[in-house]
Write a structure and sequence with these properties.
Rossmann fold, about 230 residues, alpha/beta, binds adenosine monophosphate, 10 helices, five-stranded parallel beta sheet, globular, about 15% strand, 8 strands
């Protein structure tokens, strides 16, 4: 295969998609593409898409597919994703987005979809204590129990670290309800297509990384040598 690996990471908000994608991106040398980060950056830059997306994001609702796809189309071109491969974090989140992604990457399609499985009470607890670096180029993740070394200043880039606007309990519950209704159906779609890799995501980031990598190796999606 001359093109890069094509992976999707799906799972409830707070299941650790961003953390796993950061590690996998370094490990495999393929771009980590978070539609949430791209949308937050569009909001911060007050682009046309950002201005339209903001009202949905502010209340913890999914942004309409048409706006998301405008961002995704731009990301494909800007990062040469068809050739370099990708790790999509938080995309697709609806059946329609999955159809449009399939059309974009036909005829080869994706290599695997990692579903990070974790109980709802654990993710509510994780998300309400999550704190993130406000620099969209960095986005490092902390929590009340694992804060930065200097009080709420990012260890990596020195920007302020704060709670995401949609990480309040009310908005978390709204986002999880949308997940069940609109995103969870993708699990059976990818399972039927033989692409689904289920990974139990309640351990530490290193444990989840090893489990996920082990599954990809066991299914011959990546060669064993990649795990060393
Ligand atoms: P995330 O950082 O992945 O939790 O995304 C933050 C917010 O961005 C979500 O609550 C949605 O409002 C929006 N968003 C991100 N990705 C998508 C997507 N694929 N479809 C619709 N909305 C999205």
């Amino acid at each position: 295969m001359t093109r890069g690996l094509r992976l999707l990471v799906i799972g409830k908000q707070g299941s650790g998609k961003g953390t796993l994608c950061t590690s996998f991106s370094q490990h495999f040398g393929i771009p980590h593409i978070s539609t949430g980060d791209a949308l937050r950056s569009a909001v911060a830059q007050q682009t046309k898409v950002g201005l339209e997306a903001k009202s949905y994001m502010d209340v913890g609702k999914l942004v309409p597919d048409e706006l998301v796809m405008r961002i995704v189309d731009e990301l494909f071109v800007a990062n040469d994703l068809l050739n370099r491969g990708f790790l999509f974090d938080g995309f697709p989140r609806t059946t329609h987005q999955a159809d449009l992604l399939d059309a974009l990457i036909a005829p080869e399609g994706i290599d695997a979809v990692i579903d990070l499985e974790v109980a709802t009470d654990i993710v509510v607890e994780r998300l309400s204590s999550r704190r993130v670096c406000t620099n969209p180029e960095c986005g490092a993740i902390y929590s009340l129990s694992a804060p930065p070394k200097v009080k709420w200043i990012c260890d990596l880039c020195g920007s302020p670290v704060s709670q995401r606007q949609d990480d309040t309990v009310e908005k978390i519950l709204q986002r999880l309800a949308d997940y069940e209704e609109m995103t969870a159906p993708l699990i059976s779609r990818y399972e039927t297509a033989g692409k689904l890799v289920r990974v139990e995501a309640k351990g530490t980031p290193d444990e989840v990384f090893s489990l996920a990598l082990g599954q990809l190796v066991a299914r011959a999606i990546v060669p064993e040598v990649s795990s060393t």
